Amino acid sequence: MDKSEKIEAFYSKEHHFKDAIVLLRSLAKQTELEETLKWGAPVYTIDNKNVLGIMAFKEHFGLWFFNGVFLKDPKGVLENAQEGKTKAMRHWKFSSIEEIDEKAVIQYMEEAIVNQKKGKVLQKEKSSSLKMPDLLKEGLESNPEANKQFQLLTPYKQKEYYEYISTAKQEKTKLTRLEKSMALILQGIGLNDAYRK
User: Fold this and answer.
1) More confident residue, 197 or 12
2) How many beta carbons lie within 10 A of that of residue 88, not counting itself?
3) Mean pLDDT over residues 144-160, rounded?
4) CATH code, residues 3-117
5) What CA–CA distances, in Å, run from 64 to 77, 147, 162, 166?
6) CA-to-CA distance for 132 and 166, rounded, in angstroms?
7) Coil, strand or helix: which one is 42?
8) Is the pLDDT of residue 152 over 80?
9) Partner of 185 at 20 to 30 A CA spacing, among 93, 98, 106, 129?
10) Which residues in the chain are classed under CATH 3.90.1150.200?
11) What is the CA radius of gyration of the chain?
12) Chain centroid, CA 9 distance in Å
């Protein structure tokens, strides 16, 4: 099944919000956005940049705006996608087709397109102030071979170890993470190398 068939399958699947998401699709198609499929759901792009997506869940359906943080949101309908995890994405949730204000939806879509064309993208915060946790420092100082291997890792991979150990809330967890980290470091392996293959 090619991408366009998968998109059609998404919209034709029996779901209690089927008519509503088909309506949102028809509104998106009135704009200059291009329809594609990512993560198993329809995503609408401009110049290959994600602008918005259409979603359907058990309790609600709606739109997600990838850089929704920049939308003016005059109706006050946008919610942070995942508090604390996503900084830029915003959701507009509906629980019935009657809640869809077509004119407003198009205005939000058009504003999202303009923002994307202007290059309004939330920049990731640089956390260069992150320093080596004392526990890791002590572990490396007491093991010259691990220290040597650690110095050979890229700064990015070193930072992953800093974060992994320092974000543990309990001392016991920090020690467990240190033990796991030291075993990987001795092999010259980055913390997340297994996922990068």
Assistant:
1) 12
2) 17
3) 91
4) 3.90.1150.200
5) 11, 45, 33, 32
6) 8
7) strand
8) yes
9) 129
10) 3-117
11) 23
12) 24
Q: Contact at 8 Å (CB) between 56 and 21?
A: yes
Q: Are 156 and 162 in contact (CB under 8 A)?
A: no
Rounded Cα distance, 91 and 179, in Å? 40
Cβ atoms < 10 Å from Cβ of 77: 19
Higher per-residue pLDDT: 82 or 132: 132
Q: What is the Cα 108 distance to its own chain's centre?
A: 20
Output b/e per residue, 90-124; b: 16+ Cβ within 10 A: bbbbbeeeeebeeeebeebbebbbebbeeeeeeee
> CA-CA distance, 16 to 61, in Å (whole number)?
10
Return the structure tokens found at 140.
């490396």
23 and 100 in contact (C-beta within 8 Å)? Answer: yes
Half-sphere exposure (CA, 13 Å, Cβ side) for 127?
A: 10
